Amino acid sequence: MTTKARFITLEGSEGAGKTTALNTIKNQLEQWQVPFIVTREPGGEVTAELIRDILLHTEHLEAMTELLLMFAARNEHVKKVIRPSLDQGTWVVSDRFVDASFAYQGFGRKLDLALIKQLEQLTVGNTQPDLTLWLDVRPEIGLQRASSRSEKDRIEQENIDFFQRIREGYLNRQAQHPKRIKTIDANQSAQAVQEQIINQIQAHEYWVKP
Hints:
The chain is α/β, with parallel strands linked by helices. It has helices spanning 18-32, 46-57, 63-87, 98-108, 113-123, 139-146, 160-176, 190-203, and strands at residues 7-12, 36-40, 91-95, 131-136, 181-185. The chain has one domain (7-208): Rossmann fold, CATH 3.40.50.
């Protein structure tokens, strides 16, 4: 396996089981004994975390404001955390990244996908994930799981149609980037999901490339 630092992202809607999935990825990287950090979006950096609080807990936020704040936080995250870590040889595992903006703001909020692409080019550029694991869960199952957790944030309070559109957004992204985005059936048991994740990480073609 190459020693080049890799960038792994984890995507999924509410109730997909991202916390368990992140732990599975961490355990695999620890076995490989590679240096890595785990981060998240929105957030992952001091200023970006302040923006996260606005995004999740401010009522009646305009859709375009939400999109611009997401990319403002992402700009801080990429410039100050992700890119420096990769340059230093540290692997990066991020709970969500740009695919989430296409799914949530593009399909969920019905904003212009071309605009989101422009913002991606402006803030992210070539700092693209090597591997994205998308936890695909049916919205009705995911929302049922999420309802048993803590109090819902602003986005989690949306109706099921919103989350159906988000799933369509992720399906669209996976179709566009099939080599990078690997689908994990998150409707299955936790053990089955863990096995799928480990198999995808271990088999991923990018790891053996120079």
